[in-house]
Structures are given as structure tokens and as C-alpha cells.
Design goal:
Helix content is 48%, strand content 14%. The protein is an alpha/beta fold and 594 residues long.
Length: 594
Amino acid sequence: MEVSDSPEMRQARRLAFASGRFRILLELLLAAFCGWGYAGIFEEVSLSFLAWFGLLPLLTFALCRRPKHLILPAFVWSYAWSLTSFFWLREIMWFIPFALCLLLAVFPTLWALSVPFLYRNLLIPAEVRLEGAEAVRSFRKFNPFLEIAFCLALAGWWCILEWTKSWLFTGLPWNYLAASQWRNLSVIQICEYTGVYGVSFLIVTVNAALGIFLKTLSAPSQERIYRRPYSLIFACALLLTAMTVGASLLKQRRNQYADTISFQAGIVQPNLSQRRQANMEKASEALDVCVSLSRSLFQPGKTRPDAVIWPETAVPCSYNAASAFSARYRTELFSMLLKYQVPFLVGTIFLERDAVDPEKIDIYNSALLLKPGRGIADRYSKEHIVPFGEYVPYSETFPWLARAAGMGRNLTRGKRFNPLELAPDVRAGVSICYEDVYAYVSRNHAKNGANVLLVITNDAWYPTSSEPAQHFANSIFRTVETRLPMIRCGNLDYSAVILPNGRIAAAPAEKDGRPDPAWRGRVSATLSVPVPRSPEPTFYTLYGDVFIGFCAVLFLLTLAGAALGWKTEKTLLRAALAGTDNSPSASSGSNPPV
């Protein structure tokens, strides 16, 4: 009998279809809103407390869906989070954050896609899964040990994805979850052993445990009974242990580095606009400002610096080019070297004839150490240069790439991590530009004998966004990982001295009686830096990202347990189907019991 397709039925189908699309749209808008809000954990919004529970919306989406229904809302959440976090890139070209975040959003999406498989096959017994979707939705009697394993596996997987992001396509280790906690000194001390990933691990563990706890509370009222939130108790205990260890390390390291050299760093913060393609007038202004600020450090009544530090490429001209302006550049510096008899560390472009091809001139983004009577005493050249900013990958093979996406030059990478001796027994491991967000740069300097970290940077590319603040927050972790103090000299702002525990000790300006590294303006100041005379290398300095290996083992073992649960379900299902086919009712042709 055919059922007539009445107007009422057609209208009902249209309403159902429209309501379904409307529900999906609302879900996607909610996902985007939650992702946008979670970006508030970073600078300059700085809602760091939100980091500990702000992953719950993404986790809830993942716990309530199968992977194929999860991809779109998870990607929307991830894209909104990444785009908000990296929106400062618009100051270079408006489309860059929109394009880049299509890639960055893949990492949180991959994390979310692992949640349904682990949750279903690790926490829910195969027998319950065979009873159907309703039994799975209402099941809450999770094994406590498996609950904890589930939370730890998700934390480990997140850290693995963060680590992958640090090297894939040259890497971008910026705005990890840990960066939200840079002010929380007791939490970040574990980075001495785990690197920055240990803090991200804690954050995801707490979020996952909260998600399981809320999932337990959502049980049907007739099945809801009191049950200890084992995974949440474990996560809180883990966080409390990390903070206790951190407080102990803060005390130990304070006593350990009692034998220090009081190094006086003369910081020059010129507050110059970005002028890479500057004309002669702009270049002369930059040089005049830097020279004037340097001379002001030696005025009567001021603390005499042991060395004067200029930021990265503040003067838009090569130090050793064969031009009249470069000659003046060198003359001004040599004049101050002769008069004040202190070293100068200058961020500048440096030219050098290629060792293999004498016809080729290599261009380096360098830190030159100039000393009285010696000229260039040493040099460190930036090892991690910026793709599409300082060079175009594969442009020699595909010249059209340089024409389409280049910025007019290809810099050459530095070849070694060599600390520069600013003063007797003061060996500075230099990071240029955003090298300070790459842990391996500071770690290699520390392994090669540096006893202080020195960052020279120029954030004038981003004068109106949160990039300088985020840059500063991400760099703080290098001090704790290596247990070395950091001198930071910026062009616009965020010049400061940071102690080996991550605390800001001094800055050119103060606010409410405290150092204010965020103060933006033209200034020079002499800051005292306690440099440890003979620092012991930390566990992280010696062994690097061992913690990521631990995360990988933890995740793979848990994944194997979930895979075994999935296999058990399939085995039981095949056995049940085989039993039904061989039953007497099946062979006699009668209907099986319902």
C-alpha cells in the first residue's frame, strides 16, 4: 500500500530539515564562541584561570559525538581559538592569520578526534556497548584507574601535538597552553625537568578530569548515586604536587645561585617604527636616537654599565656595507667605544662573502660584540630565521615563490650557538627576534657554556596588537628551563631582567613600585643582572624533551588498551551473531525471540 505524499507531510519534512540545519548552525556558532573565549587565557587579556576549565566545551562536544560528526564543530572551535590567538599577524598582511590558522586548527582538532575512541573503548565495557546507544549514553560506572589513564592519555596527546607544532614546517612554538601560566611561578618551576610541556600537561589533565566528573553528574536521575570523582581527585593531587615541588625548587634555586656576578646591563630601547626599507632620513634618525640613548647611560650620577645593548636591527642598515651611511654607523660606534671603554652588543645586518661561492654575499641577522681596541670581538648570527619574512623556503628551486611571497631578500642561517663574553665570566647566549620562543636555541647556548640569556628583538612589526606581550610571556619559560637569568632588550617595549625562576627583577620603567616591562617609550637604563658564576646544567638542558617521550609511551599504551576494547567488542558481536545463526529457532525457520 503506497502512502500519499500529502502537503502536510512535505511541510513536516521541510520543518525537520530546517530545524536540523538551524541546530547545526547554533552548535557551530557555540563552538566558535567557546574557541574565541578560550583565547582569552593569553596576553593581553590574561584570563589565566580560564585555562584550567576552558577546554570543557571542546571536550563536551567530543564526548557526545562520533568522530565523523565531531570534525566540523571541533575544527570550528580550533579555528576560532587559533585565529583569535594569532590575529596579531594581520599587521603584516590581513590574510595571513586566516590562512595560517587553517593549519594551526588541525592540531586541536586531532586531539578532539581521539576523545570519542578512547572514551568509548576504554571507559565503557564491551558488554555495555553491545546493548546499544542508549546503554552507552547512560553508562557512568567507570573504572577509576581507566578514568585516570583516559585523562593522562589526553594530556599526553595534547603535549605531543604541541611538540609537533614546534618543528613541523620550521615550527611555531607560540601560545602553548602553558604560556597562560607565566605569572604562576609555583606551577612553572617543573619546566626545569619537563620543559614547557609539563605545564600544558597539567592543564589538560585538570580539564579532562573535570569533563569526566561532569559526565558522571549528567547520569539519569534514577541511576545517579554518589561516587567519588577519582580522576578529579587525582588531577587536583597532581597539580598540588607540582605546585609543592615548584615552591621547593624556588627555595632551592635561590640558595644555589648565591654566588653571582653583579653585571650592569645598559639597555637601549629606542621605540622606533618599523623601517626595514628606510630612506636615508629614517636611517639617520634611528642611528641618532640609539647613539643619544647610549650616551645618556654615562651621564654623571648614573650607574655605569658594564656593556651597552642595542635591540635587533634598530638601525636599518648593514654594519659593514660599503656605503657612506655604514661608514658613519661604524664611526659613531667606534667613537663611543673609545670614549666610554665598555663593550657594545649591537643587533644589525652583517654581510659576509660566501665560503663556497666567492661571488655570493651572505646576509645575516646578527648580534655583533664590539670591544674597545678590538672592534668586532665576536658575533652570533640568527640560527632560526623567519620563513617568508627573512627567507622563502625552496625559492632557489622555485624562483616564482620568492616573487610571490618573498620580502625582497633571503637571509642566511647562523651556523653555531656560541655565547658572547660581554664581561669577564659573563657569557651571553643570544636569541634574536623570536628565537627565544624556541627552547632548543637557549638550551644549546646553555650547553655551550652560557651563564646568562640575552634576547634582542624588534616587535615594531606589530605596534598595535598583543604580539609583544605574547612574545614576552612565551620567552619567560627559557629562564626556568635553563635556570639562567635573562636580559631582554626590545625596540618598542618589554625590555627587562628576568631571574632564573621566571620572576621579573627589573625594567627601565616602574608601575606601582614594580618593574613594568610593558611600558612603551624611548628610554635607556642600566639594569643590574645577577649572573651565576658557575651554573649547573638543568635536567632539561642536559636531556631536552624527554617528557615528550613519556607522553608518547603513555598515550600509545592507553591507545592500545582502547584498541583492545574495540577488538573485544567486535569479537563478542561476531560470537553473538554466530550464536543467533546456529540457534534451533533459526534452523527451523521460526522467528527469533525479541
